[in-house]
Design brief:
Helices cover 22% and strands 31% of the residues. By secondary structure, it is of the alpha+beta class. A hairpin with a 7-residue loop joins β4 and β5. The longest helix has 16 residues. The protein binds nickel (II) ion (NI).
Length: 164
Amino acid sequence: MALRQIRIMGDSKLEKVCRPVKEMTPRLKELIYDMLDTMYDANGVGLAAPQVGILKRIVVIDIGDGPLILVNPELLEASGEQTGQEGCLSLPGQAGIVTRPNHVKIRAYDENMQEFELEAEELLARAICHELDHLEGIMYVRHVEGELFEVTAEEEEDESAAEE
Ligand code: NI
């Protein structure tokens, strides 16, 4: 298990557009497994490669249903709306209200570069949208309605579902 350092908002890596993965390498697989370790260690439900300083289109998510690895994810469809609390491991202790699509369909590759499609709703759809934004250099604060608010460590534990 190897933990990577999570970049905090203000770090220039979080503001850059990420490059597609052209081929899977042992080094990138190691990155993916390190990202999962880092996400679980931080009680998050999602982590994008730029959050650990790597400008590649790689995302990991686990909303409690097991790990989901998205390489070169692409949004195919988005519909509906959900409004709720969102946080980010790159902005610890804070949260905000964000409206996202309630349903998304994506295409991505897994860690073996096998292509797949996935439809997601509610929290998983929110997590996917949040993480795909990271690949474009966009933090969720850009979408926040009203002010950011502080959440305590205990609330973060309870609301860990919203920490991406
Ligand atoms: Ni985030």
